[in-house]
Amino acid sequence: MKVMDAQEIMQIIPNRFPICYVDYVDELEPGKRIAATKNVTINESYFRGHFPGNPVMPGVLIIETMAQIASILILKSKEFRNKTAYLGGVQKAKFKRMVRPGDVLKIEVEITKQRGNIGIVNAKARVDGKVACSAELMFIVSLKDEQQAK
Questions:
Q1: Confidence band of 1 (pLDDT split at 50, 70, 90)
Q2: In the annotation, is 50 catalytic?
Q3: Which residues are catalytic (predicted)?
Q4: Residue 107 belongs to a domain
Q5: d(C-alpha 70, C-alpha 45), whole Å
Q6: How crowded is residue 33: how many other Cβ atoms within 10 Å of its Cβ?
Q7: What's the pTM?
Q8: CA triplet 81, 87, 93: central angle to 5 degrees?
Q9: 41 is a domain residue
Q10: I need a surface site. Which of 39, 54, 124, 141 has the fewest CB within 10 A?
Q11: Residue 68 and residue 10 in contact, taking contact as beta carbons nearer than 8 Å
């Protein structure tokens, strides 16, 4: 069951094609956790160079996907509506398996700490139930209302 589709996601985070990596949100508990999906297709532009004849999703883009999903979780809380969340740090990143075209990335993110507009989430990306990547991400939410400034 989809809780949010791509159009709803774009109302929350500023990322757009070609750098929006979230297809839909499966589950959402604002202020606590989120589960979302990224369908990895051969049409992704990065596969042309990473790597010809051996397409592999770059690890940094898996981290970016997890950060975008964390942003949705953070920005769905009442205190951060219409704000922008930024990735402030990456700790304990581990890459356990390659992500290839045709894979479906299922990402789960859980808030573990928050103080004011700064916090930490634990994120895991799985393919076929097996962990492909895990990381601890720090986020910082802009305190000004950036969405209305547009």
A1: confident
A2: yes
A3: 50
A4: yes
A5: 23
A6: 15
A7: 0.93
A8: 135
A9: yes
A10: 54
A11: no
CATH code for position 95: 3.10.129.10
* 123 has a pLDDT exceeding 50: yes
Kindly name the residue from 50, 97, 100, 106 that is annotated as catalytic.
50
Show the 3-state SS of the chain: CCCECHHHHHHHCCCCCCCCCCCEEEEEECCCEEEEEEECCCCCHHHHCCCCCCCCCCHHHHHHHHHHHHHHHHHCCHHHCCCCEEEEEEEEEEECCCCCCCCEEEEEEEEEEEECCEEEEEEEEEECCEEEEEEEEEEEECCCCCCCCC
Q: What is the domain count for the chain?
A: 1
pLDDT at 150: 47
Residues 4-52 pLDDT 10s: 999 999 999 999 988 999 999 999 999 999 999 999 999 999 999 999 9
Is 149 domain-assigned? Answer: no
